[in-house]
Amino acid sequence: MGSTPISTSFLIASLAAVTLLEIVAGLASGHVDIPPIGLIIITRTLQVIVLGSLAERQPAGLATLGLGRDALLPGLMKGLIGSAGFALAAGLLFIALLAAGQHPLQLIRSPLPESPYQRALFFMAGGMVAPVAEEIVFRGVIYGYLRRWGKATAVLISTALFAAFHVGPALPVTQIIGGVVFAIAYQASGSLITPIVIHGLGNLAIFTLSMC
User: Fold this and answer.
1) At 106, is the pLDDT very low, low, confident or very high (cuts 50, 70, 90)?
2) Dist. CA 104–CA 98, nearest whole Å
3) Backbone phi, psi, residue 33, to 5°
4) CB distance 140 to 68 below 8 Å
5) Cα dihedral sign for 205, 188, 71, 156?
6) Is 2 a residue whose pLDDT tops 80?
7) How many CB atoms are located within 10 Å of the residue 46 CB?
């Protein structure tokens, strides 16, 4: 998970870069001929590139973020296995909720764009680009930095920040559960690819079920 701990200067530089790109995207919204979802894709992609460039300058390079070359393939395999286990647990929970007379899809349903083109962009943003950027920020940088004060503290604070980033009219239960799962997956596997895969496939599953 990185041969050296994340420094305070790297944390500050990373969060400053992410925040600056968010501000620029917010200012550009409505002034450029780009759909909002497309702007999100561009912003998240730039954040990944910038954070990767900053990590390359660290003593351990990309391994600082759990993205070392040796961790990629093992992380992918563990991510696929973890996704299968997560899907099985979710399926059993759905069955239990149905047996109790509840409608589980209403708990996770995500509003989707009507246009096929917009919907394709939505799947790309939420299922591929955003999970990579968010895992680098919340698990790679923030969780990685906070681990110096203990794993439990790192899980709680990084999850709280992750949920706050997705705050809306309803309590972000999915993000709270996801934040805990992603942090534990990262810690257990030593590869950021693992939570990226679980996060991305989980989002794609939610979006697909929302079409039902």
Assistant:
1) confident
2) 7
3) -85, 60
4) no
5) positive
6) no
7) 16
Decide if 198 contacts 181 (C-beta within 8 A).
Answer: yes
State the residue for tokens 């509840």: 102
Average pLDDT over residues 108-128: 90
For the chain, the C-alpha Rg in angstroms (whole number) is 17
Q: What is residue 140's DSSP assignment?
A: I
- 102: pLDDT strictly greater than 60: yes
Is 43 within 8 Å of 25 (Cβ atoms)? yes
Sorting pLDDT into bands at 50, 70 and 90, what band is 3?
very low
Q: Virtual CA dihedral for 62, 63, 67, 73, nearest 10 degrees?
A: 130
Long-range contacts for 31-38 (Cβ within 8 Å, ≥24 apart)? 35/118, 35/121, 37/113, 37/118, 37/121, 37/122, 37/125, 38/121
Please name the residue ranges forming H helices in the chain: 8-28, 36-56, 69-99, 105-108, 116-124, 130-134, 144-146, 151-165, 173-189, 193-210
Q: Is the pTM of this model over 0.90?
A: yes
CA 145, distance to chain mean position in Å, is 17
In the chain, what is the straight-line distance between the N-terminal and C-terminal CA atoms, in Å?
39
pLDDT band at residue 132, thresholds of 50, 70 and 90?
very high
Which residue is listed with tokens 């039902």? Answer: 212
Q: What is the pLDDT of residues 54-71, one digit of tens each?
A: 999 999 999 999 999 999
CA distance 125 to 105: 21
